[in-house]
Amino acid sequence: MANNGKILLSILGAAAAGVVVGMLIAPEKGEDLRRNLKKTAEDWMDEIAQLSGKGKAYASDLRDQALADAGDLQADAEEGVNRVKENFKRRSSSN
């Protein structure tokens, strides 16, 4: 999972560098260029904030599901232990 995050950040960084280089090479006035760079940076920050929010929600859902599954497994294990105890008591009392 950590490697996927590093790969995604690398791709985003490369894309950002490509956009910046493209904008710097384009024949624009300095003021227009700065305005476009600022708008692009703001758009990307909004996009990153949305992706971050989705990632946090997904992680929270995974955590909740894992906790629910762990609770189910614990209940199943307790039930199995109780059955073994009952069987042991029955066998002990019948001997």
Task: Please summarize what this structure is.
By secondary structure, this protein is mainly α. The protein has helices spanning 2-25, 30-94.
Describe this structure in words.
This protein is mainly α and 95 residues long. The protein has a domain at 29-94. It is 94% helix and 0% strand. It contains 2 helices and no strands. The protein has helices at 2-25, 30-94. The two termini are 56 Å apart. The mean pLDDT is 85.
Please tell me how large the radius of gyration is. Answer: 29 Å
Terminal CA distance reads 56 Å
Task: State which percent range the strand residues make up.
Answer: under 5%
Helix amount: over 70%
Total strands: the figure is: 0
Order of helices and strands: HH
Tell me, briefly, the overall form. rod-shaped
- Derived from helix and strand composition plus strand pairing, the structural class reads mainly alpha
Unreliable stretches covering 5 or more consecutive residues: none
Helix segment tally: 2
Q: What is the arithmetic mean of pLDDT?
A: 85
Topology:
Blueprint: H1 2-25, H2 30-94
Keywords:
0% strand, 95 residues, 2 helices, mainly alpha
